Amino acid sequence: MPEIPRWLEWAREIQALAQTGLHYSTDEYNRHRYERLLQIAAEIVAEAGKLDSSKVYRLFREPIGYATPRVDVRAAVFQNHRLLLVRERLDGGWTMPGGWADVGDIPSEAAEREAFEEAGFRVKARKVIGIYDANRLGPLELFHAYKIVFLCDLLEGQPTPSHETTEVAFFAQDEIPTILSAERTLPRHIADAFLAYQDPSMPTAFD
Predict the structure, then answer these.
(1) How many CB atoms lie within 10 A of CB 138?
(2) Cβ-based burial of 145 (10 A; exposed 0-12, middle 13-18, buried ≥19)
(3) With bands split at pLDDT 50, 70 and 90, how would you rate the model's confidence at 63?
(4) How far lies 59's CA from each of 11, 42, 135, in Å?
(5) Three-class SS string for the chain?
(6) The whole model's pTM is what?
(7) Calpha distance 46→30 (Å, rounded)
């Protein structure tokens, strides 16, 4: 797993404390202090990441309630011992289809939906391959996240890129592209997917 910069860990923790404090605090002075903590967290990210602090602040101010990790879901889909990957339009890297789960989503159904929307295949989630810590580093992905990878059965469909993807293809384990898409899919996730496909009795991996 890539090493997370300390400045990002500090900023995430400060943002989470401030967000939770704003949710529970009714004292105006304390709320002002929590607002200032949000600004400090944004300033840390902006300075270290060379970003616009006002934009980072708006991202940090948007979530409400008790701060918790976001959830990313991925669909591991196989055909003839080959793993389905899509090429992200955003960075040109390859990843298992997936994305952020929406509020109200059933996790497995979110992964199934992403496989259809990003790759054109109807799938059915069979088991959880792994639940991983997923500290994303992109400028629009500043928040802590968990990643859930589902082993899915392919039901029907044709490879169909979307507005988020430019290519859809299946790869044998020794053919996996070297350029993967940021933190969306790491070699560890791919290795665990092949292990689960080859032996469905494998226990769920987790951090």
Answers:
(1) 12
(2) middle
(3) confident
(4) 12, 9, 16
(5) CCCCCHHHHHHHHHHHHHHHHHHHCCCHHHHHHHHHHHHHHHHHHHHHHCCCHHHHHHHHHCCCCCCCCEEEEEEEEEECCEEEEEEECCCCCEECCEEECCCCCCHHHHHHHHHHHHHCEEEEEEEEEEEEECCCCCCCCCCCEEEEEEEEEEEEECCCCCCCEEEEEEECHHHCCCCECCCCCCHHHHHHHHHHHHCCCCCCEEC
(6) 0.76
(7) 24
pLDDT digits 0-9 by tens, 105-144: 999 999 999 999 999 999 999 999 999 988 654 444 567 8
User: CA–CA separation, 141 vs 70, rounded Å?
Assistant: 10
Return the structure tokens found at 46.
Answer: 């902006």
Question: Any residues with CB less than 8 A from the CB of 173 and at least 6 apart, and which?
Answer: 83, 190, 194
Model confidence over 86-96: pLDDT tens digits? Answer: 999 989 999 99
Please check the confidence at residue 172 and state whether its pLDDT lies above 70: yes
d(CA 80, CA 72): 26
Q: φ and ψ at 133, to 5 degrees?
A: -70, 135
pLDDT bucket at 185, cuts 50 / 70 / 90: very high
